[in-house]
Design brief:
The protein has 196 residues and is an alpha+beta fold. The chain has one domain: Alpha-Beta Plaits. It contains five helices and four strands, in the order E-H-E-E-H-E-H-H-H. It has a four-stranded antiparallel beta sheet with strand order 2-3-1-4, with helices on both faces. Strand 2 and strand 3 form a beta hairpin. Helix 1 crosses helix 2 and helix 3 packs across helix 5. The longest helix has 20 residues. The chain is globular and about 50 Å long. The chain starts with 12 loop residues before the first strand and ends with a helix.
């Protein structure tokens, strides 16, 4: 049975995710994280897109990417990032063979029932993913730490994060936006506590 055709749209926000082969924790080592950061940096230098969030979670990655009108597609961007990670990992560890389990999955955030709420909740979901896996204690301490870019206007991390327009619509100032964004964290944690 042929796989379904991926929906390619310009100027929308994609939540993408991809798992390592056999669900192995290939991104858990310092090398895996380093290769992810390097691949994203290379892609940001090559293609024009907005990286909204990026998080390695041991055996998979989450990226939120906004494509731009007339620029590269989500497929091209993800293909480039995944290929660079695989090349660097195999070269650095002297391994051969595939790094990734399958093609990446994605959803278009703007096609959800409430895109703004979905994205702002999703940012916390992705941020807390390593916490749930026992890889960190707080999203603010994660390897890439993208969530800090939404809490502190001048926070610097190794990849370039563009805060999403939905976040910027939360208030008149960045500080107002960040304060309201923390309410989404509270809501996420309340929902999460139901499962634990």
């Amino acid at each position: 049975m042929p796989r379904p055709i991926r929906k390619i749209v310009e100027g929308v926000t994609y939540h993408t995710f991809s798992r390592c082969r056999g669900k192995q924790n290939l991104l858990r080592s310092k090398y895996g994280k380093k290769y992810l950061i390097k691949a994203i940096q290379m892609c940001q230098n090559k293609y024009n897109f907005e990286l909204i969030a990026a998080e390695p979670v041991g055996n998979h990655i989450h990226l939120i990417i906004k494509t731009l009108e007339g620029e590269e597609t989500i497929s091209r961007i993800m293909q480039y990032i995944k290929a660079r990670i695989a090349e660097n990992y195999n070269s650095g560890t002297n391994e051969t063979g595939p790094f990734w389990n399958e093609r990446f999955g994605c959803t278009i955030i703007e096609e959800s029932d409430n895109p703004k709420n979905y994205l702002l909740w999703l940012l916390w979901y992705i941020g807390y993913n390593p916490v749930k896996k026992g890889l960190s204690r707080d999203p603010r301490e994660n390897d890439i730490g993208f969530i800090n870019c939404y809490l502190n206007k001048n926070h610097d991390i190794p990849v370039r994060i563009t805060v999403h327009q939905f976040f910027l619509r939360l208030g008149e100032t960045f500080e107002e936006c960040a304060k309201k964004f923390l309410l989404y964290e509270d809501a996420f944690l309340k929902r999460l506590s139901v499962y634990f």
